[in-house]
Amino acid sequence: MEREKLQAEIRKLARDRKALILAHNYQPPEIQDIADLVGDSLELSLKASRTDAEVIVFCGVLFMAETAHIVSPEKIVLFPAPQACCAMASMVSPEDVRALREAHPGAPVVTYVNSYAEVKAESDICCTSANVVRVIASLPEKEIICLPDRNLALYAQRHFPEKRIIYHEGFCPFHDVLSPEDVKRAREAHPEALFIAHPECRPEVIDLADHVASTSGMLRFCRESPHREFIIGTEVGLLYPLRKQNPDKKFYPASEKMICESMKLTTLELVYQALENLEPRVVVPEEVRVRALRAVKRMLEIPRG
Ligand code: 13P
Ligand code: SF4
Q1: Which residues are [4Fe-4S] cluster-binding (predicted)?
Q2: How many CA atoms lie within 13 A of 261 on its CB side?
Q3: What is the rounded distance in angstroms from the CA atom of residue 57 to the CA atom of residue 48?
Q4: Atom 6 (ligand 1): residue with closest C-alpha?
């Protein structure tokens, strides 16, 4: 079936099924174009927790679909590309969390949503790249455990010189790969451009950034900025919404190596089949879900900045 026709069929089927299609900012363009909401992890979790749709179709990676089920267990959560895993989420286990707690008694555990439900279930509160600073600011303790992303923890540490942020050695391979040399090369090629980085980038890359933000924070910054050119230090999928929203501005990838293959596994055909069959679903076991919900809910209750 040709692309536009399939997209129209999906929209019709979604209406019939009372389904909400959520897509992350890194999803392929043709998927973003059929979504009810395209957003960052925080926006998508909030929407999943507040919709009255009967079905949620999650176009993203597994931890995102799991989070949708954690906050909305009464809904069917469809996950059209079940192989789509986040490399960072696989780098931490519940045992790692328990070991960190034992080594640092009294330190609360802040878990990045880029983690699996079993890890969230061991945590005190979750965070995303959009609210990590607000989440840590809400905690009175001087020692805080922040996992699984070392780079996100080191980024947060800059905002809290009076606290000690203890981190785990996880990382996103597609952000950690960006080097200061890549940024310098991009700046030389585009001397008028601002460099915008995601907090999953290495500290030495963050040092070079004009602005640091979540994916939707980057979209907001570029939309509102009077600047015309931007070098984008995150997964290349974000270039599509950036260019779509700002046809008069120029966007350059900081590195062509920043491609998260998992985010590209969703296809229109898979979304159509998922809606038709109401499968494959993501279901978090209830015992894990209720414990993970505490940490996710506590995060969602923090006022947005
Ligand atoms: P955002 O929450 O900023 O969209 O980031 C999600 C992610 O997976 C980044 O790699
Ligand atoms: Fe995970 Fe990195 Fe992909 Fe984001 S870009 S989903 S952190 S592997």
Answers
A1: 86, 172, 260
A2: 3
A3: 10
A4: 41
From the CA of 199, which ligand is nearest? Answer: 1
Residues belonging to the binding site for iminosuccinate are 24, 41, 112-114, 129, 198-200, 215
Are 125 and 196 in the same domain?
no
Q: Could you tell me if residue 60 is inside a domain?
A: yes
67 lines ligand 1 (CB under 6 A): no
Q: What is the CATH number of the domain that holds 225?
A: 3.40.50.10800
Domain containing 152: what range? Answer: 89-171+290-300
Cα distances (angstroms) measured from residue 89 to each of 15, 149, 252, 280, 287: 32, 9, 28, 20, 20
Residue 241 lies in a domain: yes
**Tens-place pLDDT, residues 169-192:** 999 999 999 999 999 999 999 999
Same domain (yes/no): 113, 159 = yes
**8 assigned to some structural domain:** yes
Q: Is residue 305, in this structure, part of any structural domain at all?
A: no
